[in-house]
Amino acid sequence: MRGFALAVREKRTDARRGDLLPWAPSPRPEWIEICSIEHGSKNVIDFAIVQDLLSLLWVVNLGCIDLNQWYARCDDVDRPDYLQFDLDPVPGTTFEQVLLERFL
């Protein structure tokens, strides 16, 4: 996770799933590093960066277990380090069908 912007899912006290927060929660400790990324809409969003155990514990302490890191490092956000495919099956799809789709 070191060097990557991080979006976190907010904790919820009810049964609903929390919202994805694509910005660093505020207020936050001054030692939490920030990665500012400009989006197509020209908005600049400040993401938290988890650089060490202390910053990871801060994020987890917020109740944010769903950690979603950016696909590129903050020093070169236009060049992803990796690509990920999310193979969520639709209702009626077997796990075996999902496994077959990974080869396409």
Rg over C-alpha atoms, rounded to the nearest angstrom: 16 Å
Helix count equals 2
Q: Provide the β-strand percentage band.
A: 25-35%
Total number of domains:
1
Order of helices and strands: EEEEHEH
Judged by helices, strands and strand pairing, the structural class is alpha+beta
What's the helical proportion of residues? Answer: 10-25%
Q: How far is the N terminus from the C terminus? A: 28 Å
Task: Please describe what this structure looks like.
The protein is an alpha+beta fold and 104 residues long. It has one domain (4-101). It is built from 2 helices and 5 strands. The chain has helices spanning 53-61, 95-101, and strands at 4-9, 20-21, 33-38, 44-49, 67-73. Strands 1, 2, 3, 4 and 5 form a 5-stranded antiparallel sheet that branches. β3 (33-38) and β4 (44-49) form a beta hairpin. 13% of the residues are buried.
